What does this fold into?
Amino acid sequence: MSTTEKSIMDKLGWLVLVLAVSFVVLAIRVGFIQSVEGPYYKKISQQRTIKTDTVFANRGNIYATGGDLLATTMSKYTVRLDMVTIENDVFEKNINALSDSLSGLFGKSSSHYRNYLRTAKRRKNRYLLLARDLGYIDYAKLKTFPILKLGQYRGGLITEQRNVRARPLGEMGVRTVGYSDYRGNVGVEGAYINYLREQHGWRKKQKIAKGQWKPINDQNEQEPQDGSDVITTIDVNIQDVAHYALLEQLENFEADHGCVVVMETQTGEIRAIVNLGKSEYGGYYEKRNYALYEAQEPGSTFKLASLLVGLEDKKIDTGNVIDTEKGVIKVYGRSIIDSHRGGYGKISLARAIEVSSNVGIAKMVMNSYGDNPQQFVDGVHELGFGARIGVPIKGEGKPYIPDPKYVKKGDPNSWSGLSLPWMAWGYGIKVTALQLLTFYNAIGNDGVMVKPRFIKELRNQGEVEKVFETEVIKERIASKDNVRKLQTILENVVKRGTGEALYSPRFSMAGKTGTCQTEYWTGNTQYVSSFAGFFPAKNPKYSCIVVVNKPNKRKGYYGATVAAPVFKAIAQKIYASDLQEKNVILTEDTTLTTLEKKYDRYQKNNTSEESKMPNVKGMPLMDAVSVLENKGLRVAVLGDDAEVRKQSIHVGVSIKKGQQVVLN
It folds into this structure.
């Protein structure tokens, strides 16, 4: 073998040896990867080709008692464009059509959008904003526009979706409907968030061609669960009536803020709750839940409680005569003054409530309880004052009743010689509007005190999950005889007392006016005007309280002038809605008995399978819709006028439930 051949053989031998060693090393490495590093690389591979996607659920809806949506979850869409993805010829061919479509949807000119898109295309913008927070209808329409309908990979369409809480009826009762988010738990939504809260699910997806992902079945996947729906006691028609009645009066008297609560007498269901405060620009909006949280001196509306304590203790009777003297008395150097100059002379205690005599009620309490003020205070507590009601909505104000056992020099809450007479006519104590209404509602409910209730039931997937029943706080706050006496007195307040401006022969009401000074310690005394009562006066269906804080003193501040007209407007509107028949306007000589007969006939017509089309032309839109929906019709509205001009079904034509009527 030649030297050359030997050299070649040696090299081949070394090569074989190297290959053999490499093979062994590779085999060892492969084995190591499979046995030791395999799970790691498998995990990386899965992370790149398999992902876990959240499947979003919806928070439960909040409904009014008639089925109107008060709060719901809606999807909002932000749309952007990747201008690099769009091919030049596609862009040039469709830019004019796309600009025209965007102009039609959003209102800006076509030239604006052409310049906007061309600039973005030239700058190779990959994240161009087209629209933010679109509703689903507009979003669906946008996806049909030229270029955008090509989708993500040819049309450059980028969509970001998020769920937001929406209120279809606007800001109606927003502080009561509430929210549960970074701001805290407020109102119904905050109180019942554990029922409303959704549970998101998850599902695995596998990556396929062109960056697309498809769902894959997995035993560990979790389905989303929507939250339960909450059905409130709010009646949107009564809420609307109360809102605008209060708003008008706040604007007329340039007041700082005010509230209204309408409650169903026997059940305690809150049919309306309105809280309006003045903004820095002069308008009014749902600023705070004043009816729930604001505890303040009630003034004359508390006199009824003072009288009832005396009646229950058998210290006095409504026929007892009290001398109001000249309308002024001195107590420990301080004056108690009647609003009527010269006083009322000698009058019965019933009449003292009717005319709201401060002197008469203060003297009655001092004469009866001067030697034992603790008995009077205990009697006030027995009527339900001094403790929170315990409604589930957060923020209920803490009431305050002075205690004769607490005496501390220098403390403004210390019991003094002025405490008893001042309590008698509603000073030195604090209650919220809702707490005071609960007392007046008990008088209207024959002495049975029920707890104010905001929720009727919970539903899940259309099935009733939980029903909230009427809760009785106190079976009887006073004897039947004494309660009947107070009912008569409150009816007479409207007929011949401080509330006589409310009187109407068309329907009966009962209640008490209240005028209370506030901020008197500042040197710039303000006033709180109120009216609390129920209607009808006999067998009342609703109780109501109106409180207006700090009206313009030059325009008026008495409860009868400021608050009582709101009460009357609400009562009158509810009567009209209940008793409306063929657009008949109630006349002054209509008696309550006649109205009740009309109401029964109206209800019978509405519940029949077939009835006649009423005349709603000229009616306010809200009233017309209420009347027609009560007849079982589906109502469609064209235009945005507040008054009905035309109706698609002629007056007197036979109608059936489920039939549609169009109002112009």
Q: What stands out?
A: Confidence is low (pLDDT under 50) at residues 581-610.
